[in-house]
């Protein structure tokens, strides 16, 4: 099952993994390299409306995200932002944080907000080829770990 938030962020093209009730997607706008969106597939527009199983699945999804992103960009901190102002389905923007820049496939992304809050307006807008390559890389790392 998909929802409008998943579709907005490029599902199924941008999909990295599905863990229980959650789908991990590459964020097409990369404020930092490796930025993701973690979307719950349950029909819920409030965090408190999620099922107990979705909360249990969230732990596994977060553990997988942190493992994969640590190996990919060696982040120093990681931010989980639950903004839900435009897209009402329960979801988090996952922003790995680091000093300096990281690069992949010719795309270089600095963490413009470091060491403060993330600058969501900065970074790289991935074209289709870059999005496909990043999703494939992170998916391969997810499966291998």
UniProtKB/TrEMBL annotation:
Any matching Pfam family: HIT
Protein name, per record: HIT family protein
Residue span(s) of domain HIT: 2-104
MF terms (GO), sorted A to Z: catalytic activity
Highest taxon listed in the record's lineage: Bacteria
Xref: InterPro entries: HIT-like (IPR011146), HIT-like_sf (IPR036265)
């Amino acid at each position: 099952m998909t929802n409008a938030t998943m579709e907005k962020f490029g599902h199924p093209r941008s999909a990295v993994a599905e863990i229980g009730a959650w789908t991990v997607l590459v964020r097409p706008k990369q404020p930092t390299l490796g930025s993701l969106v973690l979307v719950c597939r349950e029909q819920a527009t409030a965090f408190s409306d999620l099922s107990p199983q979705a909360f249990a699945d969230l732990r596994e999804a977060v553990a997988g995200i942190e493992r994969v992103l640590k190996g990919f960009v060696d982040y120093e901190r990681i931010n989980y932002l639950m903004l839900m102002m435009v897209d009402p389905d329960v979801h988090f923007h996952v922003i790995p944080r680091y000093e300096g820049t990281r690069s992949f496939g010719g795309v270089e992304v600095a963490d413009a907000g470091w060491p403060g809050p993330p600058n969501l307006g900065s970074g790289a807008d991935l074209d289709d080829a870059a999005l496909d390559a990043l999703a494939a890389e992170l998916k391969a790392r997810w499966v291998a770990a």
